[in-house]
Design a protein that fits this description.
single chain; about 170 residues; six-stranded mixed beta sheet; 1 helix
């Protein structure tokens, strides 16, 4: 178990088959901020993907991160196996297709989870509720009251040129 870590200002991209930008287990009371992850098979995973001998990641702050998945990638953010108490604020979780959800969080990881001021591209998979649209997620969980839907074409300057700075008319701008 690792505590009070600061993971910031990293760029991770083009990690191939089954690899993630970040795959973290056992991290607690830490911050992930200002990271850019793109074209990875998985964006960011907190908690091991299988139930055997897992260490949940709990009480972490994820803020100002951009995770962009293309048509070959799975979910942008995955919270699994009791990764509780995590906070997700002011992030961009964008999938270029609707093939995978922007956020996956299992029922064991929902306690203490809070999320707002994010931009999502598509659906959210949450616990026993299954796949939800952003408006339904807001209505059911009272989360993401200020979050928005977005698409890469109107969010970034150019994903083709790996320019993930916000475009002039981006919905992610305040």
């Amino acid at each position: 178990v690792s505590t009070q870590l600061l993971i910031e200002n990293n760029t991770c991209h083009d990690n191939g088959d089954q690899a993630a930008g970040f795959k973290i287990e056992g991290m607690q009371q830490s911050q992930l901020r200002n990271n850019l992850l793109f074209r990875n098979f998985q964006g960011l995973t907190l908690g091991k993907l299988d139930a055997a001998e897992h260490l949940p990641s709990t009480g972490n702050l994820l803020v100002n991160n951009t995770i962009f998945q293309d048509e070959n990638g799975s979910s942008c953010l995955i919270l699994r196996f009791g990764s509780t108490g995590n906070l997700l604020y002011n992030n961009v979780l964008l999938h270029d297709t609707n093939a995978s959800p922007a956020l996956e969080i299992d029922a064991l990881s929902l306690p203490g989870f809070d999320s707002d001021y994010n931009v999502f591209s598509n659906s959210i998979v949450a616990g026993e509720d299954g796949e939800l649209t952003l408006p339904l997620w807001k209505a059911l969980g009272l989360r993401d009251a200020h979050s928005k839907l977005g698409a890469s074409i109107n969010l970034f300057r150019s994903t083709i040129d790996d320019d993930y700075r916000l475009g002039p008319s981006s919905v992610a701008r305040d």
